[in-house]
Amino acid sequence: MIYSFESDGSEFDDFIGILSDQSLDYEVIKRDKIVVRIFGCVNDDLRQRLDRASGRSSRITLKKTGEESISISNFTTGEKLFIAGPCSVESEEQLETTARFLSGLGIKYLRGGAFKPRTNSNSFQGLGRTGLKIISSVAKKYNMKVVTEVMDRSQLDDVAHYADIIQVGSRNMFNYSLLTALGAVAGPVLLKRGMAATIDEWVHASDYIRKGGNEQIILCERGIRTFEPRTRFTLDILAVTIARKLSGLPVIVDVSHAAGQRDLVPPLIRASLAAGADGIMVEVHPDPEKALSDGSQSMTFDGFESVFNQIKEIKFGVPTNRDA
Ligand code: PEP
Ligand code: MN
């Protein structure tokens, strides 16, 4: 079970007092907020006492599929989120060229992985903290926001320092320890769907972040593994509608990882927007053939500009937290 507190104080002390009287192990994660993760069995009586002491119910957020209560205003203010940039931060020059191009089109969110989850351990692993510094300084220069991935709790201090939106990759959707820690972060988290996760598993995963006290969550459909070998993954377009209904959270689509090849990206952008996605993530590279990761699915500047021109009447912007 997970509980959250805005800060320490008497409410938190009382809560810990109750826990300390029990023979239960627990972990306290202090960042912008405080998350308490309880191990062991919590009976109904204790759960009610903890709910009362924390002033929060350990409710289950998952709704029934038929339920209509969509409240995407939890995070967005109506503008759609458009995130673009290379798969990996490779160099200052690569990112600078990309950011100049994208910001020229009015795109506000720059992606680029500094810590890369690579299938082959011999592949480029990202530039690490050097990459974070590059994306942060380039984004600042072009008045853009940083979207970058955290793979592990050990990287959270660094990534949270530089990222405006912290990305949790497909391979980490089931990393409950990382998700719990993200509850204690003040900024938004982009939670990608596990490539072999059901929609319910994905929404339940978001609850780890939410119960930890961070309600700024954006879900990201990025394709799932099916029997179809012609594409890298199969984009589950209905997951956009279903996950939003179940969670009340905004759902965007990463079109690049589903497609796996750049010529398939434009139809997926159009399809995702037609299906009501709250935003798009797309990989763009100044020289995709030379990219250190995901080159074959990365769009060239020319290719990207022509598809972006088809959709530019849509208002893409900087969604702000309703409560901010
Ligand atoms: C990425 O965004 O580059 C990435 C690794 O995506 P995913 O986690 O969806 O595979
Ligand atoms: Mn990638």
3D structure, described in words:
34% of the residues lie in helices and 15% in strands. The protein is built from 11 helices and 11 strands. The protein has helices at residues 10-20, 44-54, 92-104, 129-141, 156-162, 176-182, 199-211, 238-247, 255-259, 265-274, 301-311; strands at 2-5, 26-30, 34-38, 81-85, 109-111, 145-149, 165-168, 189-192, 217-221, 251-254, 279-283. By secondary structure, the chain is an alpha/beta fold. It has 2 domains: 2-54, no CATH class; 72-313, TIM Barrel. The structure holds phosphoenolpyruvate and manganese (II) ion. Phosphoenolpyruvate binds next to loops.
List keywords for this structure.
324 residues; eight-stranded parallel barrel; binds manganese (II) ion; 34% helix; globular; 2 domains; alpha/beta; binds phosphoenolpyruvate; TIM Barrel
